[in-house]
Design goal:
about 70 residues, mainly beta, three-stranded antiparallel beta sheet, 3 strands, flat
Amino acid sequence: MRRLRRKRLVRPAAPVAELTWANQEWAMDFVMDGLATGRAVRALTLVDEYTRECLAIEVDSCLSSRRVTRVLEW
């Protein structure tokens, strides 16, 4: 008996923004890790996409929305 192959859905690739200068686009990420004592540590990283320079790193056991806003405004 012959088996039919499934048809794969082909989607067009998402357009990639062409960056031409610094501070045009930033990437923000939250990273979480644990200490040997079991306590959690969170870090907010802010990176410039064009230069790949780390603009800010905020590390603490608790990052409130006010601290995130303060880092972004800075």
